[in-house]
Amino acid sequence: MSFMDWFSNLTGQMGTDMAIDLGTANTLVAMTGEGIVINEPSVVAIEKSTHRVLAVGHEAKNMINHTPEAFSAEHPLKDGVIADYDVTEAMLSAFINKAAVRKYPWQAKPRIVICIPCGATSVEKRAVFEAAIQAGARQAYLIEEPMAAAMGADLPVTEPTGSMVVDIGGGTTEVAVISLGGIVTSSSLRLAGNRMDETIAMHLRDLLGIKIGERTAEVIKIKIGSILPFEDGRERDMIISGQDVLTEQPKEVTIQSEDVRQALQAPCEEMVVHIKETFKKTNPDLASDIIQNGILLTGGGGLLSGLDRYLSDKLEIPVWVSETALTNVVTGCLKVLETPTALKQTLMRSK
Ligand SMILES: Nc1ncnc2c1ncn2[C@@H]1O[C@H](COP(=O)(O)OP(=O)(O)OP(=O)(O)O)[C@@H](O)[C@H]1O
């Protein structure tokens, strides 16, 4: 081993390794020995006049809220994959620098495990990989999101039993059957939480003649959205403001949770079809394990009220929603870093 390798390994053991859940909606960074240190929206503020990146995450969102005419909000990831390479790299690099509390001036660059959707093409994988290296990784490793989510949720991924994961994020719904430490069958649907927001906005426009933005639609979904009637039997309502479709004048209306439920039917039905198709591709032994063990529902979209019960009814398989749905992927990536055998099984690595 050369002096540089030895030195790099030594400094690499000083807590600089990082796990990153590079999501369409949120980016989470966790560090070995520290846990989650960053949980921020995947948003970058760009100065319109110069096209310079001025801020990322919460800071970017605040800037845009206060002076929207001077900055544009970029979402560098669309449907789980990189849509704008330069802006993604700038965002990653800002998060990595923010997370790396440099305890020692000689500390090495971090090794980074970063997740990608199952359906990512080799070009999309390469883009994430390069972005991590350019943003400051010493070594970069890629892992598929549902595998990371399953590890984060403590599913028995290495055992000879079948576990099924449905990870509903902002941009993608990832479905995977895992056994003996690998993904046996998987598929990725480019429809998830963001599509729910869009269908809510469209439905309210048609029903009540009000135009709302995606941010308002997301608040509605989280506050009064549900795919089945609420378990306490009480429906909810909420006052929202937007613009009149015809006059574009300010408009305020009270919306009912039943209206939101109607809007959520189409995207949720599409998810059911997708999960059923993946289940059909599973071999009978693993399928019977899944029927016995149930399906893990994770990702922020999995928190939609009633979605676990709805999927259970439609699939005729028990579905349980993880209590740590928003953090399983990053926690799983961190476990990969801490388990050398798991690190070897990642999809792509730089050395
Ligand atoms: N309580 C909730 N009810 C319904 N949806 C929710 C809730 N909390 C978060 N979400 C939704 O979860 C989505 C974000 O989830 P998550 O952070 O897992 O996605 P991501 O990792 O950024 O996206 P992707 O994996 O697709 O790249 C958003 O659409 C958000 O509106």
TrEMBL record:
Segments passing through the bilayer: none
Subcellular location: Cytoplasm
Pfam families per the UniProt record, alphabetical: MreB_Mbl
Keywords: ATP-binding, Cell shape, Cytoplasm, Nucleotide-binding
UniProt keyword Magnesium present: no
GO biological process: cell morphogenesis; regulation of cell shape
GO MF annotation list: ATP binding
Principal cellular location given in the protein's record: cytoplasm
Gene3D superfamilies: 3.30.420.40
Ligand binding (ATP): T24, A25, N26, G170, G171, T172, E218, V219, I220, K221, G300, G301, G302, L303
Keyword Cytoplasm (UniProt): yes
Alphabetical list of CDD domains matching this protein: ASKHA_NBD_MreB-like
GO cellular component terms, semicolon-separated: cytoplasm
Subunit structure, as described in the record: Forms polymers.
Family designation: Belongs to the FtsA/MreB family.
Annotated function: Forms membrane-associated dynamic filaments that are essential for cell shape determination. Acts by regulating cell wall synthesis and cell elongation, and thus cell shape. A feedback loop between cell geometry and MreB localization may maintain elongated cell shape by targeting cell wall growth to regions of negative cell wall curvature.
UniProt name for this protein: Cell shape-determining protein MreB
Source organism per UniProt: Ellagibacter isourolithinifaciens
